[in-house]
């Protein structure tokens, strides 16, 4: 979508072996709360988050119904950084008062702020609809090797998530398994997140997401019953009224994790033939929070590839 906006002369085709509701992004809680990528400069991560927050905040002020606003992150001991880098992007960030903290007797410190939470499946469908309206073609296809695309396309953008491990042989990329519960508990109106990032309660438009787990290196997509009980107990200790939650649905996703998100240009070359590629993968646990920002940057890199192609005598399929 960002490419169609920044490079309107391009004809865009989306190839994917799975579309919503069967992607990893459909499992995400959809919370705008960044996870730090250790090898990506903070100013770049902050810019990605800011662009994503601004984009979704504008949509939240419309008739669309997949976004809501909420707050409360609690810590058993004060975090290393009392002011996270994103504190001036979310709204009304402040330490929690003693009175507020009384609600969490096991926690000594807390942050209150308003951020956005998106219901991912309807958002993904909304994006698909907008994409189709631009004339973009969408095909179900598994790509075995980026090079196979060289005859059909001038530029390839690789947004394969964890699939990039196989597609481009990236050994830095690994799964971090996450199991969450989606429950019916419409009385829960505020989000509560333990600062260790393991336990969270995120009310959405229809369901509340209860999390979670972070299992590095696990490829299992099967729900685990013991983990379900553990997540439920941990969430009930933060919000006891969840004991009355109904219709527990279990979801598992594999976060496409690495030390830094790979938003980068590369030129593949074989026998004098070149194929410009823009990579945009490795968003780990915080991909939803930075998706628009990284997509804008990737679209900008596509613009650079177009300039190079236009400057060369290459045959253009643009
Ligand atoms: C339980 C859980 C909760 C989360 N909650 C949040 C949250 O609240 N906030 C947040 O910011 N982030 C969250 N995340 C992280 C977020 O979901 C990810 O960072 C993000 O979804 C990654 O998106 P992606 O588009 O890169 O990957 P994907 O959604 O996996 O998309 C990759 C696409 O590429 C396709 N593909 C892959 N390989 C190929 C191939 N060879 N050929 C063709 N197609 C291919 C796939 O079919 C898929 O459609 C959560 C993750 C989990 C697991
Ligand atoms: O970390 C969070 O609180 C949001 C959910 C998430 O990003 C995750 O489980 O990976």
Describe the protein in words.
Residues 1-301 form the FAD dependent oxidoreductase domain. FAD binds at residue 143. Keywords: FAD, Flavoprotein, Oxidoreductase, Peroxisome, Signal. GO terms for molecular function: D-aspartate oxidase activity; FAD binding. Its EC number is 1.4.3.1. This protein has 318 residues and is an alpha+beta fold. It is 27% helix and 27% strand. It contains 7 helices and 15 strands. It has helices at residues 2-6, 42-60, 98-101, 120-133, 164-167, 225-238, 287-311, and strands at residues 13-16, 67-70, 73-75, 91-95, 109-118, 137-140, 156-158, 174-184, 192-194, 200-203, 208-211, 215-216, 246-257, 262-270, 273-281. Strands 2, 3, 4, 5, 8, 9, 10, 11, 12 and 13 form a 10-stranded mixed sheet that branches. It has a 3-stranded mixed sheet with strand order 7-15-14, with helices on one face. Strands 1-6 form a two-stranded parallel sheet. The longest helix is centred in the C-terminal third of the chain and has 25 residues, at 287-311. The two termini are 16 Å apart. 36% of the residues are buried. The model has no long low-confidence stretch (mean pLDDT 94). It binds flavin-adenine dinucleotide and 2-oxoglutaric acid (AKG). Flavin-adenine dinucleotide binds next to strand 1, strand 8, strand 13 and helix 7.
């Amino acid at each position: 979508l960002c490419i169609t906006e920044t490079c309107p002369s391009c004809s865009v085709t989306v190839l994917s072996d799975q579309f919503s509701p069967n992607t990893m992004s459909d499992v995400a809680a959809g919370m705008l709360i960044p996870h730090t990528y250790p090898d990506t400069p903070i100013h770049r991560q902050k810019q990605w988050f800011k662009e994503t927050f601004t984009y979704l905040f504008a949509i939240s002020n419309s008739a669309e119904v997949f976004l809501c606003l909420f707050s409360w992150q609690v810590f058993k001991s004060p975090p290393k950084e009392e002011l996270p880098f994103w504190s001036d992007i979310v709204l009304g960030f402040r330490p929690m008062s003693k009175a507020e903290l009384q609600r969490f007797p096991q926690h000594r410190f807390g942050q209150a702020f308003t951020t956005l939470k998106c219901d991912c499946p309807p958002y993904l469908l909304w994006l698909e609809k907008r994409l189709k309206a631009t004339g973009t073609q969408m095909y179900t296809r598994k790509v075995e090797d980026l090079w196979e695309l060289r005859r059909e396309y001038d530029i390839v953008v690789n947004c394969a998530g964890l699939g990039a491990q196989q597609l481009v042989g990236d050994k830095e990329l690994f799964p971090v398994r996450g199991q969450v519960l989606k429950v019916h508990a419409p009385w829960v109106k505020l989000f509560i997140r333990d600062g260790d990032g393991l336990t969270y309660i995120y009310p959405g438009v229809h369901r509340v997401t209860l999390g979670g787990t972070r299992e590095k290196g696990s490829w299992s997509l099967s729900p685990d019953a013991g983990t379900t009980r553990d997540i439920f107990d941990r969430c009930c200790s933060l919000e006891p009224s969840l004991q009355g939650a109904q219709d527990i649905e279990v979801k598992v996703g594999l976060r496409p994790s690495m030390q830094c998100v790979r938003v980068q240009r590369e030129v593949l070359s074989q026998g004098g033939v070149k194929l410009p590629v823009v990579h945009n993968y490795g968003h780990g646990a915080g991909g939803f929070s930075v998706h628009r920002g990284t997509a804008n940057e990737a679209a900008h890199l596509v613009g650079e590839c177009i300039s190079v192609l236009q400057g060369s005598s290459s045959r253009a399929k643009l």
